[in-house]
Design a protein that fits this description.
The protein is an alpha/beta fold and 391 residues long. It has twelve helices and 14 strands. The strands form three sheets. It has a seven-stranded mixed sheet, sandwiched between helices. It has a five-stranded parallel sheet with strand order 2-1-3-4-5, with helices on both faces. Strands 11-12 form a two-stranded antiparallel ribbon. β13 and β14 form a beta hairpin. α3 runs parallel beside α4 and α7 crosses α8.
Length: 391
């Protein structure tokens, strides 16, 4: 018996309703799949990147992108990932967080990318991450060691290298072990720099080293003389430079040109090629922490693979930044292979979370559903006489 006020349907009417419901469900399912499978067609996989194609960090970003392109080009030439070629849509943010946020929205809403990859720089990456989290878009291997991108509970960000805190602690520990007790720190006037300074302040307490001076560096290089004067006044035995790209090199140049002498310690986001090009013989003795294997290493498979592909492209000058880009691309391709025949944002996240113990040619990756940051390797290398790093 029909309920009061409800007219019973004829068989034909019931059939029409079932058909309409099935069609609606089909459309809804199709729409949901289309949204989740953004960036994937039968022939390609589209990845988005906001980075520095201009500005003071452009040269460094160029090296990272060159390294990742080496591997992507190799994969594409070999048929792609399950028949799909990888296409990276890169947009310039000039190290401006506001532009990075705008670029991220465009990449997701207009370019319909599957994932965001190798965002360069702490401020741009931090500006983009909330957007990626809100839209459910994987945010993979950013070119920054910021602790802000390594917080527990982030669903979509994945890191595969040690962070700045680990690099800086290794640096301070090394300084203490060789008897250097009075150090200074110069740092970029942005979240990258201030976060790094906080890590140094924590480490000097743990290792009983005195931070005798600290000074701000502006991204545009202004007020450089003030930073040099503030640090030189304290006559530190060593200076930790919490910066990347051109501002880092410019500070060392300005400090030495002013007639001061000390040992400089830098983070992995400085290019050995940039150091030598800008400073020449004066780069000798600069110490740089590294978080990926040496691109000159002959004993590690991933380094040999990098060398082979680089030589095939006519690249003869290697950098650690290229190597980091190469390893990150290798990681992304491995994750895409594991994401299934029809990869979606959800299956890509699941694929990365399944990489509990993966060896990328000698470089280990350890991720899980509760651990989205991998990488403990930190090495300290000194620039030698020939422009190469030595122990």
């Amino acid at each position: 018996m029909a309920a009061a006020g409800v007219q019973p349907l004829s068989r034909a009417g019931a059939a029409r309703r079932r058909t309409a419901l099935a069609m609606a469900l089909g459309w809804a399912t199709g729409t949901a799949w289309a949204q989740d499978s953004a960036g994937v067609t039968d022939s390609e996989i589209v990845i988005g990147q906001s980075c520095q194609l201009s500005g003071p960090l452009a040269a460094l970003t160029s090296e990272v992108r060159q390294g990742s392109a080496l591997y992507f080009d190799h994969v594409n030439a070999s048929g792609g990932v399950r028949g799909r070629k990888i296409r990276v849509v890169a947009i310039d943010d000039a190290y401006d967080p506001r532009k990075a946020a705008e670029n991220t929205k465009k990449l997701i809403d207009e370019d319909k990318v599957l994932a965001l990859f190798q965002y360069a720089g702490t401020p741009p990456a931090l500006a983009a991450l909330p957007i990626a989290e809100e839209r459910g878009v994987p945010f993979i291997a950013p070119f920054t060691g910021s602790d802000g991108l390594r917080q527990a509970g982030s669903r979509y960000v994945f890191n595969i290298k040690a962070g700045y805190a680990a690099e800086l602690d290794a640096t301070v520990k090394q300084l203490a072990s060789v008897g250097i007790a009075r150090i200074a720190a110069v740092y970029l006037n942005n979240p990258f720099g201030t976060g790094g300074l906080a890590s140094v302040e924590k480490s000097v307490k743990n290792h009983k080293v005195e931070l005798v001076a600290q000074a701000l560096l502006e991204v545009d290089g202004s007020k450089m003389a003030d930073a040099v004067a503030a640090v030189a006044k304290a006559a530190p035995q060593a200076i930790i430079v919490i910066s990347a790209g051109k501002p880092s090199v410019d500070f060392v140049d300005a400090y030495l040109t002013a007639g001061h002498r000390t040992t400089f310690y830098m983070l992995s986001v400085i290019s050995n090629a940039q150091l030598v090009k800008a400073l020449g013989e004066r780069a000798r003795g600069v110490v740089v922490s590294q978080v990926v294997p040496s691109p000159w290493n002959q004993s590690m498979p991933i380094s040999r693979e990098f060398q082979t592909l680089a030589k095939a492209k006519g690249i003869t000058e290697y950098t650690f930044s290229q190597m980091e880009g190469f390893i990150s691309a290798r990681f992304l391709v491995e994750a895409l292979q594991r994401a299934g025949a029809k990869p979606t944002r959800a299956t890509l996240v699941q694929a990365m979370e399944s990489m509990k113990s993966v060896n990328l040619g000698g470089y280990p990756v350890e991720l899980s559903a509760t651990q989205h940051s991998s990488g403990k390797f930190v090495d300290l290398l000194m620039m030698g006489r020939d422009g190469r790093f030595t122990k």
